[in-house]
């Protein structure tokens, strides 16, 4: 873990404007507080630390470390950043520093966002035989329909989601909701860019706002929260060939039989 930290710490500092310059406290734990957590950053009134599971080093673990380091290093400049966008910022920087995890994560976010907007995600790709590492892609095309398991009745509107602060996200337990919010945050941060997002946070702070207003964010992302066609095309634009293959290769992918 010390080696991984050595490899990524300065890259995180360079990628994140307004990052706090402070010693990093990373703890390896036998068991995470929740099984579905890849890593976590805790903040109390007197301390802040990162917890990561005791696992073999991998690119996935490295990306999780970067994600948590961004949470850890966010300085006062970012105090007005909505919680959903904080997650998106962590993921964007993690993908930039550990690009090998990017295609699958983007593909999963595309499926989640499309499921939230349209109920499912339909795409054309090479016909696949076998699963995971043994998968073989044929020359002919097949149409796939995938759907993320989401309790859609529990889904807030995108506008409402941007009013959440980080503490509001933690108690959300309904199936798939956190995944959609992460996908939303990632998509918006990718469109706005880290520097522009930083500028919006500073502007809100100077105006003594609690949180960056959602209309500033949708404007900067050039997308209207209710415009389904625009979200559909945002999903398409992050789902290229690399994402398609990464998704089809995923071991646990459930899709309806190609037709
Ligand atoms: Zn996070």
Task: Give a nutshell description of this structure.
This protein has helices at 2-15, 59-73, 83-97, 102-118, 158-161, 166-169, 177-192, 194-206, 214-220, 228-237, 241-249, and strands spanning 26-29, 40-43, 48-53, 121-129, 136-146. It has 259 residues and is an alpha+beta fold.
Question: What would you note in describing this structure?
Answer:
The chain has 259 residues and is of the alpha+beta class. The protein is 48% helix and 13% strand. The chain is built from eleven helices and five strands, in the order H-E-E-E-H-H-H-E-E-H-H-H-H-H-H-H. It has helices at residues 2-15, 59-73, 83-97, 102-118, 158-161, 166-169, 177-192, 194-206, 214-220, 228-237, 241-249; strands at 26-29, 40-43, 48-53, 121-129, 136-146. The strands form two sheets. It has a three-stranded mixed sheet, covered by helices on one side. Strands 4-5 form a two-stranded antiparallel sheet. Helix 2 crosses helix 3 (83-97), helix 3 crosses helix 7 (177-192) and helix 4 crosses helix 11. The model has no long low-confidence stretch (mean pLDDT 92). The structure holds zinc ion. Residues 67, 71, 87, 90 line the site of zinc ion.
């Amino acid at each position: 873990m010390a080696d991984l930290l050595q490899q990524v710490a300065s890259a995180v500092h360079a990628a994140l404007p307004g990052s706090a310059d402070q010693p990093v406290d990373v703890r390896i734990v036998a068991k995470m507080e929740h099984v579905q957590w890849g890593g976590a950053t805790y903040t109390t009134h007197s301390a802040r630390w990162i917890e990561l599971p005791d696992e073999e080093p991998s690119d996935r673990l490295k990306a999780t470390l970067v994600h948590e380091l961004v949470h850890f290093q966010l300085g006062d400049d970012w105090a007005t950043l909505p919680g959903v966008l904080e997650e998106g910022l962590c993921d964007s920087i993690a993908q930039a520093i550990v690009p090998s995890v990017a295609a699958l994560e983007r593909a999963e976010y595309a499926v989640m966002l499309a499921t939230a907007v349209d109920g499912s995600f339909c795409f054309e790709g090479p016909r696949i035989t076998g699963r995971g590492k043994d998968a073989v892609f044929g020359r002919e095309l097949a149409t796939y329909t995938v759907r993320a398991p989401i309790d859609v009745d529990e889904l807030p509107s995108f506008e409402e989601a941007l009013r959440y602060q980080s503490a509001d996200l933690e108690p959300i337990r309904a199936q798939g909701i956190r995944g959609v919010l992460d996908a939303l945050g990632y998509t918006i941060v990718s469109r706005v860019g880290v520097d522009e997002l930083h500028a919006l946070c500073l502007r809100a702070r100077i105006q003594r706002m609690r949180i960056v207003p959602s209309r500033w964010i949708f404007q900067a992302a050039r997308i209207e929260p209710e415009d389904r066609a625009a979200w559909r095309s945002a999903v398409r634009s992050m789902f290229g060939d690399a994402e398609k293959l990464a998704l089809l290769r995923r071991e646990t992918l459930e899709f309806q039989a190609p037709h």
